[in-house]
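Case study.
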Amino acid sequence: MTEPLFDKIALIGIGLIGSSLARVIRRENLAHEIAIATRSQDTLDRARELELGDIYTTDMAEGVRDADLVIVSVPVGSSGDVAEQIAPALKAGAIVTDVGSTKGSVIAQMAPFIPHGVHFIPGHPLAGTEKSGPDAGFADLFQNRWCIFTPLPDTDPQALEKLSEFWRRCGSNIDTMDPEHHDKVLAIVSHLPHIIAYNIVGTADDLQTVTKSEVIKYSASGFRDFTRLAASDPTMWRDVCLHNRDAILEMLARFSEDLAFLQRAIRWGDGDKLFDLFTRTRAVRRSIIEAGQEIDAPDFGRKSVETTPKK
Amino acid sequence: MTEPLFDKIALIGIGLIGSSLARVIRRENLAHEIAIATRSQDTLDRARELELGDIYTTDMAEGVRDADLVIVSVPVGSSGDVAEQIAPALKAGAIVTDVGSTKGSVIAQMAPFIPHGVHFIPGHPLAGTEKSGPDAGFADLFQNRWCIFTPLPDTDPQALEKLSEFWRRCGSNIDTMDPEHHDKVLAIVSHLPHIIAYNIVGTADDLQTVTKSEVIKYSASGFRDFTRLAASDPTMWRDVCLHNRDAILEMLARFSEDLAFLQRAIRWGDGDKLFDLFTRTRAVRRSIIEAGQEIDAPDFGRKSVETTPKK
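After joint prediction, the assembly is written out as follows.
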């Protein structure tokens, strides 16, 4: 077993991401000691029951004391508050990172509080499921996923390399880009898909001509795919929408423009336009499978839903 | 083993649905003889290599001769052509059904050609994957899925019961509704989700600020879910769009109206509206899981994508 990378790691927030980190840190022996800090006493108690760490506290400053690495895993709208609370207790030379889905806003909220001599390296592991809370985490969550850093101009290369090594040992591949570009990329690959999924599930839920029970009963014909993203954590996604507003609005405008074009092709019976689009999109999935970011099995390899015994 | 339900079943079209039927008919011993008819010689040759039937022909009329049950599994836009070709060869007392995703249009296309004394019972098994062609089929495709019949007013109850028994033995649950209602239900649970998926994948493919390789690389953060539906058969979906136009346009209008509302909430920073919607949609997925139409495992139970060996 290799030596731990850090003496003490502090996890601020212990939901899906934080608790997955706790598990992989333990499994890969990445720290001597794990401190867990979260605002909610119930969540903290649950983390303790799950034996996710060594130190448990609802006091953020207490949590980060003497930590060499601090990972903030909270909804992006809470980043500023957390930074303000932990700032006075941060150890000189410590690395502070986060896992937020928006980077421009997180930097604007956190950077002003980070003391000189502490390395603030904004990060974003592109990993998750529709589940949330400390029970939802698992050590393999980051396996073969990308972790994107958006380093500030004065970032210390050694600190960045150490944090990169940490994420590599968690199973991730590393990329860096500037925060503004990150927020545009995520707006299309993650934020727009979630918003569209939330929207279509809302539309179906509001219909009068088709009942809710019909929507649920017949959902396997396509609709249920969208319900996974639309079951994601509401607080997290409210904050993403509020904190990556401009990039999201731009992608929404493009989406709506394209949809108007498609709608017109349907209205006027332009089969060639439809066929062309439907052919082009098929190739995109093929590329994703070839890039190792999706499995090739039909229907996501979903196991058949359990059935009542056959007569 | 129970006695076969039918002496001879003719399968017109041998793609994902037709070839799944061939496999389950064999496994469950539902017919003495399976005839396969398809326009394309290549597809027919492949069906023969896969040993999906007993009789193989590119002549539709030849295929249905002496058949007790004829199942038409072709893109809905070809239904009328098929009906015209098979009509003269249909046996008195035979049952003719289809598997098309739109019912009003299929009935309008096929019913005029069906001779007196032949039972035409439009049907739609709500089952499929994003794969197509004779290799894509599997015997379990219909297991625990719904098969919806939209019987005509003069449908013979005994023929309907016999066809229902056939689908039950294929693993399906049976429902009946009128064609117009079917087309509305499917517009929201299936057609709109596919169209939205095609559209968002098209939007992502067209961007300049974010490259295609970035979209592919980071797709696991949400986008890749949509690529599954958007990889469905282009001919089938072109025809669905053209043949359920009014119901689809209505659902698209509602979707766009809701999206404008959501977009406005994002623009004006109305977090409460966003949180309310995102909470409500979570409950919909829970209901689908409880209804046995989806698995509860995170991320559709996707097995982690294979990774390069860890160092």
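Observations recorded in class. Confidence is low (pLDDT under 50) at residues 306-311 of chain A. Chain A touches chain B through 114 residues (CB under 8 Å). We will return to this complex in the next lecture.
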